[in-house]
Design goal:
The radius of gyration is 35 Å and the shape is rod-shaped. It is about 90% helix and about 0% strand. It has a domain of about 100 residues. About 10% of the residues are buried. The longest helix is centred in the last third of the chain and has 85 residues.
């Protein structure tokens, strides 16, 4: 007789829930990383624009229109960066919530796994006990047959 865990379907269900929660967390984390990368790119563009302005001012031969355009680009980029930072904050909250849900699901699954392991070890102890009792009974029966013959 093999070991049968009565909560096996629940265990499988919890495992699927855990895997789905993990996938959702990974997606949220990926979106957050993309947003942070975009913020870095905007910051890099602002630094490059400032370097171009410094170079243009040191040359003193460039027209002021290109410098003005660079200043406008920097101001627009600052606005885009603030918008992206707010988006990143929201994505951080979402990712944190998804992480918490994933941890809860993993804990639920792990507790059922431990219960299954504990029940399996109890089952093995019972089987071993029955085998020993059967062996003892067989030895007693052999002994009785040997005495009466």
């Amino acid at each position: 007789m093999a070991f049968h865990f009565p909560l096996e379907t629940l265990l499988k269900h919890r495992k699927r829930q855990m895997e789905m929660a993990q996938r959702e967390f990974e997606i949220a984390q990926h979106q957050l990383n993309q947003c942070l990368q975009e913020i870095d790119n905007i910051h890099r563009q602002i630094l490059e624009s400032r370097q171009l302005i410094a170079y243009a001012e040191s040359q003193k031969t460039t027209d002021t229109r290109s410098v003005d355009q660079l200043f406008e680009f920097i101001e627009g980029s600052k606005i885009r960066m603030k918008i992206k930072q707010n988006e990143a904050r929201n994505l951080m909250e979402v990712a944190d919530n998804k992480r918490r849900v994933f941890q809860e699901k993993a804990t639920d699954h792990k507790s059922l796994e431990r219960l299954k392991d504990r029940r399996k070890s109890e089952y093995k102890v019972q089987v071993k006990k029955k085998e020993n009792q059967t062996m003892d009974d067989m030895n007693v029966m052999r002994g009785k047959r040997g005495v009466s013959v």
